[in-house]
Amino acid sequence: MALSSPSNPPSPSPERGQRAMERHKKAVASIASAVRGFFERREPYRIFHGSTNSTRPQQTGKPVVDISALRNVLQVDRATRTALVEPNVPMDKLVESTLKHGLIPPVVMEFPGITAGGGFAGTAGESSSFKHGFFNDTVNWAEMILGNGDVVRASREERADLFRGAAGAVGSLGVTTLLELQLQEAKKFVRTTYHRTSSVAEAVARIRSETDNPANDYVDGILFSKDHGVVVTGTLTDDKPADTKIQTFSGSWDPWYYLHVQDRTRNVPSAGPTASTSDSAASSSPVDYIPLAEYLFRYDRGGFWVGAAAFTYFKGVPFTRFFRWFLDDFLHTRMLYRALHGSGESARFIVQDLGLPYRTAEAFVDYTAENFNIWPLWLCPL
């Protein structure tokens, strides 16, 4: 996805915005009526969103309340740096809409199909979260349908207990129908630096050090093994050296991001545990200039590295660049999620995020290495 930051971003007409809001209110009234009916009958139901980014096996059979129509960006306001977003708006559509106004959400989930409502209900932390918090921390207010069918608004000032509790409650306190999101100024590129580390302790210490650096807009890391880690820092910028090639990851012949990081740092010396290392170590750290949207969705192709498992499912297909290109349509996260559930493999795989304090992170990685030997691992400071 290319970044577009027009100098005179288009302004939607008041009539268009009003029509969109009227459609929204009509849809919410219909959903609220359905919820109220289930409540009065004391009948259990589930919510149909139209898509899923869950790795758990899906249950069927219960009646549903269909909210799949709530999939629109209703407004982007450059003056207030906010966006009105329905819950089923995926991240790629949200980013595309806000970039037209030269703006970007402070926290963007790394898969383009993850929705705004999913990020609010599911506690999403990304490489900018050390600076801005979870995705739900960038929400100003939420419109919700409660269990009895009432439509309410919750914010830090209004129904603050509901607003605080609904974030990360996976929809158990109500159905989210609209969010007002904070936005910030976008830039053309993310100047991305790959800091090689040679131990788990060094990687954890380096991440902690980089989060204290105010120049960094993004920080995360990948552990390929106990002695090959990479802490990745990113800085938003409009400038790029004229002789530097732009690095992309969305094209079918582009490298998968994690493989690119591994290759770029394979023969690079350790950069040390802190950001205040020597000039020689710092100068040896590889640097890429990545278009902003390409950076935000860098893990899409291959689904971090879970897509490599597809090559064990299809026996006899080698994990080579040619076959990653040849099978590219099937190796983006939207298709990987469909395949995960359609094949029944979701019952066999466990994909788990864990929040750990810095003081126990090294011991936990040592434990998983000894007992499971699962690599790579993603490190994301929150």
Automatic annotation (TrEMBL):
<dbReference type="InterPro" id="IPR040165">
    <property type="entry name" value="Diminuto-like"/>
</dbReference>
<protein>
    <recommendedName>
        <fullName>Delta(24)-sterol reductase</fullName>
        <ecNumber>1.3.1.72</ecNumber>
    </recommendedName>
</protein>
<dbReference type="InterPro" id="IPR016166">
    <property type="entry name" value="FAD-bd_PCMH"/>
</dbReference>
<dbReference type="GO" id="GO:0008202">
    <property type="term" value="P:steroid metabolic process"/>
</dbReference>
<keyword id="KW-0472">Membrane</keyword>
<dbReference type="InterPro" id="IPR036318">
    <property type="entry name" value="FAD-bd_PCMH-like_sf"/>
</dbReference>
<dbReference type="InterPro" id="IPR006094">
    <property type="entry name" value="Oxid_FAD_bind_N"/>
</dbReference>
<dbReference type="GO" id="GO:0005737">
    <property type="term" value="C:cytoplasm"/>
</dbReference>
<dbReference type="GO" id="GO:0071949">
    <property type="term" value="F:FAD binding"/>
</dbReference>
<feature type="region of interest" description="Disordered">
    <location>
        <begin position="1"/>
        <end position="24"/>
    </location>
</feature>
<keyword id="KW-1133">Transmembrane helix</keyword>
<dbReference type="Pfam" id="PF01565">
    <property type="entry name" value="FAD_binding_4"/>
</dbReference>
<keyword id="KW-0812">Transmembrane</keyword>
<dbReference type="InterPro" id="IPR016169">
    <property type="entry name" value="FAD-bd_PCMH_sub2"/>
</dbReference>
<dbReference type="GO" id="GO:0000246">
    <property type="term" value="F:Delta24(24-1) sterol reductase activity"/>
</dbReference>
<feature type="domain" description="FAD-binding PCMH-type">
    <location>
        <begin position="16"/>
        <end position="186"/>
    </location>
</feature>
<dbReference type="GO" id="GO:0016020">
    <property type="term" value="C:membrane"/>
</dbReference>
<dbReference type="GO" id="GO:0050614">
    <property type="term" value="F:Delta24-sterol reductase activity"/>
</dbReference>
